[in-house]
Amino acid sequence: MTQTNAHSPIPPGRLREFWHGFAANRGALIGGAVILCLVLLAVFAPLVAPHDPIHQYRDSFLTPPAWMEGGKSVFLLGTDAVGRDILSRLIHGARYSLYVGLLVVTIALACGVAVGMVAGYVGGWVDTAIMRVMDVILAFPSLLLALVLVAILGPGLTNAMIAIALVLQPHFARLTRAAVLTEKGKDYVTALRVAGASPLRLMFVTILPNCMPPLVVQATLSFSTAILDAAALGFLGMGAQPPAPEWGTMLADSREFILRAWWVVTFPGLAILITVLAINLIGDGLRDTLDPKMRKG
Amino acid sequence: MIRFLLRKLAVIVPVLIGITIVSFGFVRILPGDPVMLMAGERGLTPERHAEMMAQFGFDRPLPVQYLDFVASALGGDLGQSLVSKKPVLAEFLTLFPATVELGLCAVLLATLIGVPLGVLAAVKRGSWFDQLSMGIALTGYSMPIFWWGLLLVILFSGTLGWTPVSGRIALQYYFPDATGFMLYDAAVSGQKGAFVSALRHLILPSIVLATIPMAVLARQSRSAMLEVLGEDYVRTARSRGLSPWRVICLHAFRNALIPIVTTLGLQIGGILTGAILTETIFSWPGIGKWMVDSIARRDYPVVQGGLLLIAGIVMAVNLLVDVLYALINPRIRHK
Questions:
Q1: Chain A residues with CB inside 8 Å of B30's CB?
Q2: Do A154 and B31 touch (CB under 8 A)?
Q3: Which of A25, A128, A142, A143 to mutate to test the interface with B (most CBs of B within 10 A)?
């Protein structure tokens, strides 16, 4: 290490140092590669998918995958009960899952950080009130709360996302508050306050960047939770509505055929598992790199 | 300890009030009119509608309705189901043992597999066993359990025919509910084969519900164990020539237990979330399926009472864990 430093004119930047640690984690790299593939598939879905995801081929109900007896080479992973190509639906479904993950995490992160920042910075009764509200949200099992919220807002993917974001944001609020409480007494914050920085500037420009590592890890974990919860809501009929090729909804549609046609059940679930696993691998890698204290070993 | 309990209570009381507001409020903003729902497809004349609104108290101001709800709830009255016409609390108490039975089996399974897996992985850190078991744990942690349940049904019920697809016991067995815990009731019923039938019905749902807690426990046990194995007293014990397993079991594991037990306690919310999906897949007549069905049927009193009871249980268990933790670890209660 000393040698490299002696040779390179510039010391390694924070980003490079981070990448160095992250790249050493094989699992995280594999997860990253999988997600990259999924993002590409999602972006270019109409070009990559062999068929229209909602087109019903009336002569091919429940066609088995191509390699099985009775399978057709045009339907690589077979068709579902109304003759739609499963592979095309899975490829288009990647759009839904990544979209759900991204949007839910953005909403939960933005709300959670704002709320947690105010609670931690202002303190006193504001802090107590905010944290008790978060405790109330956390007292309900997350999926149950999301289910009831969707029942109020009406079934659909957008409402499911709002519900999941609301259920996930207390985690961000708690993390932000805890980080702010440790940071706000430090000298650099006091110095800027004395220099006349406004509270908003202190909160979001001075303190926030120093609270980021745990938030980034939590955001990754929430990404996978959001995908799982959205699929679960779809499975319970409260998420994306048919004929949308959302993976959880596909599973719900295929439930009655599970003993006759294993492929209609197996592939959508496998897609969910692979996506969530890849994100969790990245999450583990990020945690090990960003937060050595939370390192698992 | 008393000061610790008082501090906990100061947090819990406002949260409990919050829970009652949420449970009450949710139902009031659900779309649809409860009275029209009760009338069903027959419909109602406007006069009868107003009469029924008054009868159920829906025409009074919301704060009055809320206070009334809290007062009744404190007296154990959570209203009546619009569908079954039975008291909500009675329905809950009938179904709750089924969820507890399933949850306990899942926790038992998760602990018996997850903890040894994590401890062994820590002891054999870096080995193929460590990598394999942590790979399995991460996969379990990422598992969409509703899909996992369906896969197990395809394999064990469909292909192999080893386990039943749904329910708690085969239809030919009938005996009165003594405790609501099917395994126990079947065992004391004296009917031949009843216990085995109940057990076979319990296996797949328990595995499905145990998957995520098992993964969490395995990962947590490994990291707790790794932390302890690096401590001075473990090194001292080793340097005194004690056998490796004696050091691991007596010195290290006992100290790693505290975070493991805490993790176990924190799984209760997750178990209830998992129960919603598991019970739906296996048609298990517990409170998870009851809530899902009631939400779909817009059975307001059940949703309201169920939310309140479930959140109350989660809070009570968390409090219990906190208190146990403080009893084991004095540093917590003096913080």
A1: 151-152
A2: yes
A3: A143
The whole-angstrom separation of Cα B220 and Cα B264 is 10
Q: Is the pLDDT of residue B180 over 50?
A: yes
Q: Tell me the count of A-B CB pairs closer than 8 A.
A: 133
Q: Which helix (H) or strand (E) holds B328?
A: helix B300-328
Complete domains list, chain B, with CATH:
1-83+297-335 (no CATH), 89-295 (1.10.3720.10)
Specify the pTM. Answer: 0.89
CATH number belonging to the domain at A19-294, selected among 3.40.605.10, 3.30.70.270, 3.90.1010.10, 1.10.3720.10: 1.10.3720.10
CB burial of B86-109 (b: ≥16 within 10 Å; e: otherwise) equals: ebbbebbeebbbbbbbbbebbbeb
The alpha-carbon gap from B239 to the nearest alpha carbon of chain A, in Å, equals 23
Sequence-distant (6+) residues with CB within 8 A of B183 are: B101, B195, B198, B199, B202
Q: What is the pLDDT of residues A111-137, one digit of tens each?
A: 999 999 999 999 899 999 999 999 999
Residue B266 confidence (pLDDT) = 79
> Cα–Cα distances in Å, from A268 out to A91, A182, B142?
10, 44, 14
Domain assignments of chain A as residue spans, ordered by start: 19-294
Taking phi over 0 as left and psi of -120 to 50 as alpha, with beta for the rest, A237 belongs to left
